[in-house]
Amino acid sequence: MAVSDKFQRASLIPSFVYSPPSLSSRGLIDVESPFLMSSASFSHSSVSSSARNEGIVKKDFVIPAPNEPTGKIKMFSPAYYAACTAGGIFSCGLTHMAVTPLDLVKCNMQIDPAKYKGITSGFGVLLKEQGARGFFRGWVPTLLGYSAQGACKFGFYEFFKKYYSDIAGPEYAAKYKTLIYLAGSASAEFIADVALCPFEAVKVRVQTQPGFARGISDGLPKFIKAEGPLGLYKGLVPLWGRQIPYTMMKFASFETIVESLYKYAIPTPKEQCSKSLQLGVSFAGGYVAGIFCAIVSHPADNLVSFLNNARGATVGDAVKNLGLWGLFTRGLPLRIVMIGTLTGAQWGIYDAFKVFVGLPTTGGAAPPAPAKA
Questions:
Q1: Which of 49, 71, 119, 294 could cross-link with 336 by S-S, CB 3.0 to 4.6 Å?
Q2: Could you tell me the pTM of the whole model?
Q3: Within a 13 Å sphere around the CA of 48, how many CA atoms are in the beta-carbon half?
Q4: 213 and 293: one domain?
Q5: Residue 37 exposure: Cα atoms within 13 Å on the Cβ side
Q6: Domain that residue 60 falls in
Q7: Does 366 fall in a domain?
């Protein structure tokens, strides 16, 4: 059979048998594009005259490479942002629900430090007064609220990161990438907190006032009856004060840490690393980022808990009651453990979902600036 020159120069695994996995799996090339179909398939013209005389017909075909996703999601398409939104729902909703016991003790330590003096004693008080079931009080508003927040946080972050990069242009996007991470995450969290705030208000009231309500179904109507519909957003500004710095630190530090790990700690380029190693990097980067997040956002977290628990309370009342030192330190060790684990797990779940649908993990080497003409 006659073979073209390009096939004579092919490697042991010829290009017409496998399409490049390193590009298609990263979403950089459409595996069904006309270019790949033409370069990775047999051509009728390459069939020898003897084969044609024998009536043998070769049909065009492509065999997906091993580990190559069978489906395809084009980068920065509506399907891409929908996948990131779904990943955010799973990563935030499930993780926050899982750490409900820690969150419950933290909130009560912030509200009533005389009764809940520490982590161990706090769990003991809850177990004695409410039993084991009391550890998960408020899990439904937690699940719903942080699922809504995660959807907006991750989905809009990916959108704004691309949007601001396009505005800046390739050269400045690479040069000022950290500023783009900060701006994109702040914009996304501004929207996400509007979705979270009503659920957070009910959650705190359910967790810190025994007997107020069992959960979201009876707690939400009771809260609205007592505070009015706008009362659900009484803590929005402190929530922005807590969550926007938290998310800016969460995304910008994560991107920087992951890039540094691939640059200095891992000798293999990211695209050549196994998916399990990449997900391990995502978890490690997320955990370290979570520690920074907890420290930056903790004073506002104390304010949110105080304002949602005390009817008619103001920020001045919170500062006077907690004190400046207490505002920065009360419940901080527990929150560092909780937020570090939470953030690491969120990035792990989020990137695992992206890998599952055929997308690359988040972070890595910075894009090179285009060469000047």
A1: 294
A2: 0.71
A3: 6
A4: yes
A5: 7
A6: 1-72
A7: no
